[in-house]
Amino acid sequence: MPAVYEHHRTVLDAEIDGLGHANNVVYLHWMIDAAVAHSAAQGWTGERYQELGTGWVVRRHEINYLQPAFAGEEIVVRTWVADMRRVQSQRRFVIERIHDGVKLVEATTNWAFINFKTGAPARIPAEVTDSFEIVKAE
């Protein structure tokens, strides 16, 4: 599996806001979908995290909106793990429009690894960290 995961999708009519372009919140959904798909592609599905009793929760999103997306456009959400420390990780994203390669969004999400029962931070197991290649630069 490549270190930078590509999640392709089409902008839906239902994702368009009153200004005629994809609503800002929709980009966040695309990012989460891509992160979950990347994790699953590396063997870490939601079910596997449930079995482990630990998994990821978002601590912070930082999103720079650069250009709008419109209904019917094909986009790609590229995502990668930029670092993984004892109980947290940073994931980066770039969203581009496919037909012209225009960058729509640059974003970063900080994730915390927690125990699902207690909600307390948990050390990321080696079996998880070993499943993801760290990409330091875009």
From TrEMBL:
Give yes or no: UniProt keyword Hydrolase: yes
Organism domain of life: Bacteria
Q: Which GO terms describe its molecular function?
A: fatty acyl-CoA hydrolase activity
Pfam families referenced in this protein's UniProt entry, alphabetically: 4HBT_2
Q: What keywords does the record list, in alphabetical order? A: Hydrolase
InterPro entries recorded: 4-hydroxybenzoyl-CoA_TE, HotDog_dom_sf
The text of the family note is: Belongs to the 4-hydroxybenzoyl-CoA thioesterase family.
User: What is the protein name given in its UniProt record?
Assistant: Acyl-ACP thioesterase
